[in-house]
Design goal:
The complex is a heterodimer of chains A (275) and B (255). Chain A is of the alpha/beta class and 275 residues long. Helices cover 35% and strands 24% of the residues of chain A. The longest helix of chain A has 17 residues, at 178-194. By secondary structure, chain B is mainly α. Chain B has one domain. The chains are: A alpha/beta (275), B mainly alpha (255).
């Protein structure tokens, strides 16, 4: 294994995915560094969620390879995929908690499925994870009794239960008020400090992105149009990037009509600065 | 253009059959290659077996009473009332109990299954299972299949018994038939193999019902509309399938 591969938790190489005639990702290549927070941004409908589903093997790409810790997941069998997924924790948009289980059972679920821990020990971990997301003592509640923000936090607690190496967030701020949205961002930062995991966040929330990201990958019109450290992206003169981050609704309909192209490559070359 | 659209519809139909085939294959592969989860099977047995029983018995009782009434008046016209026991017994044990069991399973636990799995699909809970490295087939589908297989023959038995018993009650207490005639006739014409075949038929209907309701739930389209469509498709397809399939089964077994 080369040094570059070790440095990257995830690598997309020329990945293309289409549904019928609709090409959602077109020849996408990018590398997501290990142990850092990378935010994948882009307007709605640019394939961010598909990116995440490809990454966990819920969808298979039409072409290209996806490496997770240097292993090509596109060639894995169902069984190998299940094994690999134990490295992942994922926070879904609405939490994806099981409605029929209590909060405690939801968080305990991956522990009961994959470990041989005793119930007492499991409930201790559950209490600790709930504490970590700022909701101690709500083990007995049902998901339907929780607000949107609470469901997300419980979803995060469940994602953290097995101390995964890679934690994925699908639009952690969607559907939340600005204050709760900020609280979730702060929680992500706090959680990042508590773990050494790789964080991959899908978002279209601009202030949140700059708050939590170490790296940004910008998807636009099915392609990666820029990727790099937060500062590089912020200072970029690329018209699409500037408009997106300025929240300008008049983004060019066709990216080719922009005034020139910015190439931020090489993407992550394995030389991470600042630790 | 119209030809093209029709071709597309045909292709889509064939590919959906293929998808259903792969779905069933994965279901049976999971059934035979993974360890069963007793707690989940018991939970499902309760919902599929115990909770379906009252409604099945209620329906079967009234089908039995109607059969006795109708049969009595038909047979009376040529003096063959004594055949009422055989008539009620054979129709209920061979045909009606399995069909009604299949239909009630489709209507109650079948729709429940389609709705639950479709909602889980729509709310990304099935994706969540997969990402948590839990096979949704092993966790959601196979326990239901096992419960359907165990519950259905027993339900057929209860259904057949309650419909025949109700028929007997009507014959003896309302139509003043001689109980001995009814029972002798019943014992003479309804064989153990009839009961066994009926149970087997009910089990087949239940397996098909389970495959279809889990399939429609699992492949639900997004949104509330997707869920309602999954439920609808599940119950309509299963109910019509049972009635049609039953004809061929009866022909195969008794012809």
């Amino acid at each position: 294994m080369t040094e570059t591969q070790i440095e990257h938790a995830v690598e997309f190489r020329n990945v293309t995915k289409a549904f019928g005639k609709l090409v959602v990702l077109n020849n996408v290549s990018c590398q997501l560094p290990k142990g850092r927070t990378t935010v994948i941004v882009g307007p709605s409908g640019t394939g961010k969620s598909v990116f995440l589903k490809l990454l966990v093997g819920l969808l298979k790409p039409d072409s290209g390879t996806i490496l997770v810790d240097g292993q090509d997941i596109t060639r894995m069998s169902q069984q190998e995929l299940f094994e690999l997924r134990k490295k992942f924790g994922m926070l879904f948009q609405d939490g994806a908690l099981f409605d029929s289980l209590t909060v405690g059972d939801n968080i305990a679920f991956p522990l009961r499925q994959h470990t041989r821990k005793k119930n007492k020990e499991i409930m201790q971990i559950v209490a600790q994870k709930l504490e970590q997301v700022g909701l101690p003592g709500i083990e007995g509640k049902l998901p339907s009794e929780l607000s949107g923000g609470m469901r997300k936090r419980v979803g995060l607690a469940r994602a953290l239960a097995l101390n995964p190496e890679i934690i994925l967030f699908d639009e952690p701020n969607s559907g939340l008020d600005p204050v709760m949205s900020d609280a979730i961002d702060k929680l992500i930062i706090k959680t990042k400090h508590l773990t050494n995991s790789t964080f991959i966040v899908i978002s279209h929330d601009i202030p949140g992105t700059f708050q939590i990201a170490d790296y940004i990958v910008m998807l636009y019109k099915s392609k990666v149009i820029a990727s790099g450290k937060v500062k590089d992206i912020q200072d970029s003169e690329h018209p699409v990037l500037k408009r997106f981050f300025a929240r300008d609704s008049e983004m060019p309909i066709d990216p080719d009509h922009g005034t020139g192209q910015l190439d931020l490559r090489p993407y992550y070359t394995g030389q991470l600065q600042g630790g | 253009m119209a030809v093209n659209a029709q071709m597309n519809a045909v292709i889509e139909y064939i590919s959906s059959l293929g998808k259903l085939g792969f779905f069933s294959l994965r279901m049976f592969r999971t059934l035979f290659t993974t360890a069963p989860q007793p707690r989940l099977i018991l939970d499902n047995l309760y919902r599929i077996g115990v909770e379906t029983l009252p409604v099945l018995i209620a329906v079967c009782v009234f089908v039995g009473t109607n059969l006795a009434l109708l049969g009595f008046h038909i047979f009376k016209s040529f003096g063959g009332q004594s055949f009422l026991g055989a008539y009620v017994g054979l129709s209920c044990v061979r045909e009606l109990a399995p069909i009604l069991t299949g239909a009630m399973l489709a209507a109650k636990p079948g729709t429940d299954t389609a709705a639950t799995i479709a909602t889980m699909r729509v709310k990304e809970q099935i994706d969540a299972l997969e990402v948590m490295a839990v096979d949704p087939f092993r966790f959601l589908i196979v326990p239901r299949l096992i419960a359907f297989v165990i519950a259905s023959p027993l339900l057929v038995l209860f259904g057949a018994f309650s419909s025949v018993a109700a028929g007997y009650m009507v014959a003896v207490y309302q139509l003043n038939m001689n109980p001995g005639v009814f029972l002798t006739d019943l014992r003479h014409y309804v064989l153990l193999s009839d009961i066994f075949n009926g149970m087997l038929k009910g089990m087949l209907f239940a397996v098909v019902g389970c495959i279809l309701s889990t399939y429609f739930g699992y492949h639900s389209q997004p949104g509330p509309k997707g869920v309602s469509r999954a439920i609808n498709l599940s119950v309509v397809t299963v109910a019509s399938f049972i009635v049609i399939f039953n004809f061929f089964l009866t022909a195969a077994i008794y012809d």
